[in-house]
Amino acid sequence: MADLPIHTIVFEILTRLLAKDVGRSKSVCKQWYALLSTQDFVRIHCSRSLVSSNQRVLLIDDLTCSVRPIISKSNDYGPSSIVTFLFHHQNNDVSILSHLNGLLCVCLNHTYELLLWNPTTTAFKRLSTPDSHGFYINNLDAIGLYVDADDDYKVLHIKRRSGVLGVYVYSREVDSWRNIPFITRQEYLSPHFNWSAGTFCGGTLYFTVCECWIGGTNVVICFDVNSEQFKEISFPPVPSIWFKVF
Length: 246
Hints:
Layout: H1 6-13, H2 19-25, H3 30-36, H4 39-49, E1 56-61, E2 64-71, E3 76-77, E4 81-82, E5 94-100, E6 103-108, E7 113-117, E8 124-126, E9 142-147, E10 153-161, E11 164-171, E12 176-179, E13 193-195, E14 199-201, E15 204-211, E16 218-224, E17 229-234
Antiparallel strand pairs: 1-2, 2-3, 2-4, 5-6, 6-7, 7-8, 9-10, 10-11, 11-12, 13-15, 14-15, 15-16, 16-17
C-alpha cells in the first residue's frame, strides 16, 4: 500500500484523535509538531470534537478537578477522570474567566493572579508580572481570550481601579503585556457598569456592558482583534417586565 500523504494523515486522521493523543503525536517529528500547532489544525480538531459523542464537562470542586463525558441520550455524565493541578491553589480557588479551543484563562482567587491553563495537557502559564499586570479583581475587570490573524493567542484585560482605567493585551507568542487605547465612551469603564466576559466570534470580541440599576444603559462593546479598535453597537431590544403587587 502506498504511503498516505502527510496532509491526509494530519487533517483526516489526527484531527479525529482525542486532545491528549494529539499532544503525544506532536513528539513524533518536527514536521508533525509544526502541522499540529497550526490554527487550521486546531480549528478542524475543535469542530470534530463538537459531536455529541465527544462532549466533555470540566468540573472544579474544592481542591479537585475532573473531566466527565456527557451522555446525551440520558442527560447524564459518564465516569470521571481526574485532572491534575500543576500550580499551587487553595480550596475553591480557581475561577474560569474565558475559554477558547480547550485553553482556559483562569484566576486564582486568593492571589488574584491570571493564568492560561490547558486542562488536557495540564500545562499552564502565569500572566502576572512584578509591574502589576495580570491581576484580576472580580466585578471590576473583564477578560476575553482570542486568537488573531497571526495565530497568536491573546488575552484582553480591561481593568478598573479607583477611577483609573487601563486596557491591556497579553500575547502568548511575545510573552508580554502592552497597553492599548480605549476608544469609546469613558463612562463604561466606571464601577456603575457591569462587563460580561468576552465572547470571541469572527475576529471580534463581544462584551455586554450593563448599568447597575433597572432602566440603565445596556450596550455591546466590540473589539476587533486585528485592528485593536473598539466600537459600540446597540443592545438587542429587551422587553420591559412589569410586576403587579396584589
